[in-house]
């Protein structure tokens, strides 16, 4: 079965129709950009990630962020809009765990990594973003433990990606050049 992915403008229309606040739309744009940069860089080094799905999944991942269990609510809305693969990314982006082997990465991993590097609408890096998540958790120990566990897994994965693509994540994220355009 061949899936059609919504393009950038179609995603923005879905976000607007849902009523996603502008600050969340800007966050989604930044995550989509970061996720896409990662996907193109990895594809330039032997992976075959669907960059259209990475872009649309990143743009839509927080469509319902103002709702309780926004990942469930957003996934249902996206699914009803006819985008099953994007809905699965939205549904799992909050609790997804990565493999540390960059050769095993999938499109959802790109969106989750992008989300873990972006604070609000700018690249902050993993530690600043995870520190922010800990602050939002209000010091609840079991949540802090999960965030720190994910931080370490992501740190190893990001180092493995840097070794594979021969550029630092910070350089990749702050460049205006999409890796596929070299």
Polypeptide structure, described:
The chain has helices spanning 8-18, 22-43, 51-60, 70-80, 84-92, 107-117, 126-137, 141-165, 169-174, and strands at 118-119, 122-123. Helix 2 (22-43) runs antiparallel to helix 3. The chain is mostly helical. Strand 1 and strand 2 form a beta hairpin. The protein has a two-stranded antiparallel sheet with strand order 1-2. It has a single domain (8-181), classed as Orthogonal Bundle (Hypothetical protein af1432), CATH 1.10.3210. Helix content is 64%, strand content 2%. The mean pLDDT is 93. It is built from nine helices and two strands; from the N terminus they run ααααααββααα. The chain is globular.
Compact description:
By secondary structure, the protein is mainly alpha-helical.
CATH topology: Hypothetical protein af1432
The shape is globular
Helix content: 55-70%
Radius of gyration: 15 Å
Domains (count): 1
Q: How much is the average pLDDT?
A: 93
Sheet with most strands: strand arrangement: 1-2
Structural class: mainly alpha
Beta-strand content bin: under 5%
Instruction: Give the N-to-C terminal Cα separation.
Output: 32 Å
Give unreliable regions as ranges.
Answer: none
The CATH class label is Mainly Alpha
Note the run of SSEs as H and E: HHHHHHEEHHH
Helices, by number, come to 9
CATH architecture: Orthogonal Bundle
Largest sheet: 2 strands, antiparallel
Tell me the total number of β-strands. 2
């Amino acid at each position: 079965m061949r899936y059609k992915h919504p393009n950038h403008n179609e995603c923005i229309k879905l976000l607007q129709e849902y009523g996603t606040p502008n600050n969340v739309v800007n966050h989604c744009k930044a995550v989509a950009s970061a996720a896409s940069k990662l996907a193109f860089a990895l594809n330039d080094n032997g992976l075959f990630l669907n960059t259209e799905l990475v872009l649309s999944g990143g743009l839509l991942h927080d469509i319902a962020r103002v709702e309780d269990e926004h990942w469930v609510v957003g996934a249902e809305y996206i699914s009803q809009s006819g985008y099953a693969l994007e809905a699965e990314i939205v549904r799992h982006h909050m609790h997804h765990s990565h493999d540390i082997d960059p050769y095993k990465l999938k499109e959802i991993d790109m969106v989750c990594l992008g989300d873990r590097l972006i604070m609000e609408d700018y690249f902050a890096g993993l530690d600043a973003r995870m520190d922010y998540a800990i602050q939002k958790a209000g010091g609840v120990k079991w949540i802090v433990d999960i965030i720190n566990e994910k931080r370490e897994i992501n740190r190893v994965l990001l180092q493995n990606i840097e070794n594979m693509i021969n550029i630092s994540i910070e350089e990749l994220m702050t460049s205006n050049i999409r890796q596929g355009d070299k």
